[in-house]
Amino acid sequence: MPQAETAREARARTTLAVMVHGARDLRLAEIPVPVPGPGQVEIAIGAGGICGSDLHYYLEGRIGAIVVREPLVLGHEIAGTITAIGPAVEALKLGDRVAINPGLACGECRYCRAGLRLHCLDMRFYGSAMRYPHVHGGFRKVLVAEARQCVSLPADFDLTKAAFAEPLAVCLHAVERAGPLQGRNVLVTGCGPIGALTILAARHAGAARITATDVSAKALALARRIGADETIDVAAAPERLAALAANKGTFDVAFECAGAAPALRGALEATRARGILVLVGIGGEMQLAMSVAVAKELDLRGTFRFDGEFDQAVAALVSGRIDPAPLLTDVIPIEEARRAFDLAADKARAMKVQLSFA
Predict the structure, then answer these.
(1) Which domains, from first to last, does the chain contain?
(2) pLDDT, tens only, 32-55
(3) Buried b (16+ CB within 10 A) or exposed e, 124-154
(4) Which residues pair with 328 in a beta bridge?
(5) Where are the beta strands (DSSP E) in the chain?
(6) How many beta carbons lie within 10 A of that of residue 182, not counting itself?
(7) Is pLDDT of 6 > 70?
(8) Can the peptide bond before residue 133 be classed as cis, meaning omega within 30 degrees of 0?
(9) In angstroms, what CA-CA distances link 114 with 25, 102, 117, 309?
(10) For the chain, what percent of residues have pLDDT higher than 90?
């Protein structure tokens, strides 16, 4: 179909989107589909994963101090198929399947100029209420995005796997922050989606042994299935982790993915002297046992989002070197978005829930 004809159709179209208006106030709404401008493409979204931040907006209408002040389209773990192309787009073509990087850095601030785009001072990130007006997300049947956000996929690649690129990129960045893992003894505290993907990323990076902790037997069973050498239920058997804290700790590197004070304390104590503790989970304000960190000369490293790791995540998924399929609990149509969100919020039943948009 000629591009001009596609553009005329787009002006008259709307698309179904998942919008949050406040706590427990999730609605489906028709929103306009803009015409792709220079450097932009139109994408039929195929799959979108429900993230912890989406759940906070749904359940609480906020993430900490970040409050939903206007209806917000949720979603940033997305993949789809290009259906229209704007001017000056050369690397993509109609019908291409793509994973979509949800972050748009300004390219001009001091962090962007220094090659640290993830710390952009004017970042626009899909499905975020941090800015006002808010930055709408990708839980919609049709999305117009910048071509530079799109990473091409093989023609037959499973879009439900491609939608794992964003959370996997978070975990690959966490692993990069830890430094070399080859031959290292690794601890992962918290086996939700990010903890589970961190296990996969650490194994991919060459960790010699991985121990995972959680309070859920179901989550720990999945951790063992995807590559953890040992799992510890810290609710049922806290003494097992305590034993690994003896003699100033056992682990060379720990990834704290729970964002919970007890998990942080356990990780601090179980990491060996001069070991590395990577803070992955975002749990708000909590106390840090500074005496432990100081006495053992621990190296505490924050990690936030990702940059070049998005392309690395797509490459690892496409090659099959990292397979997130065991994490996928269910794929639910957009028309049943509330059911999907309620399932995703039930950690006893779900690991990762995705929406389908066909």
Answers:
(1) 3-164+324-356 (3.90.180.10), 168-302 (3.40.50.720)
(2) 999 999 999 999 999 999 999 999
(3) ebbbbbeeeebbbbbbbbbbbbbbebbbbbe
(4) 352
(5) 14-22, 25-32, 40-49, 62-63, 66-67, 72-73, 77-85, 97-100, 103-104, 124-125, 142-146, 150-153, 185-189, 209-214, 230-233, 251-256, 271-279, 299-302, 328-333, 352-356
(6) 8
(7) no
(8) yes
(9) 41, 21, 8, 17
(10) 94
Please name which of 263, 301, 300 lies closest in space to residue 283, comparing C-alpha atoms.
263
Q: What is the DSSP string of 162-218?
A: HTTHHHHHHHHHHHHHH---TT-EEEEE--SHHHHHHHHHHHHTT-SEEEEEES-HH
Between CA 288 and CA 218 the distance in angstroms is 29
Write out the two tokens for 207: 């960790």
Per-residue confidence (pLDDT) for residue 110, from 0 to 100? 98
Q: Do the beta carbons of residue 81 and residue 46 sit within 8 Å? A: yes
- CB-CB contact of 195 with 257 (8 Å): yes
| Whole-prediction pTM | 0.94
For residue 252, count other CB atoms closer than 10 A to its CB.
21
State the amino acid at position 68 in one-letter form: V
**Helix (DSSP H) and strand (DSSP E) numbers for the chain:** 12, 20
Q: What CA–CA distance (Å, rounded) separates 52 from 308?
A: 22
What is the chain's mean pLDDT, rounded?
Answer: 95
The DSSP symbol for 87 reads: T
CB-CB contact of 265 with 234 (8 Å): no
Which value, to the nearest 10 degrees, does the dihedral of the CA atoms of residues 324, 325, 328, 331 take?
120
pLDDT in tens, 188-205: 999 999 999 999 999 999
Q: Annotate 32-63 with DSSP letters as a single string.
A: E-PPP-TTEEEEEEEEEEPPHHHHHHHHHSEE
Token pair 């049947």 is at which residue?
A: 141
Rounded Cα distance between 172 and 13, Å, is 38
Q: Partners of 18 in the beta sheet?
A: 28
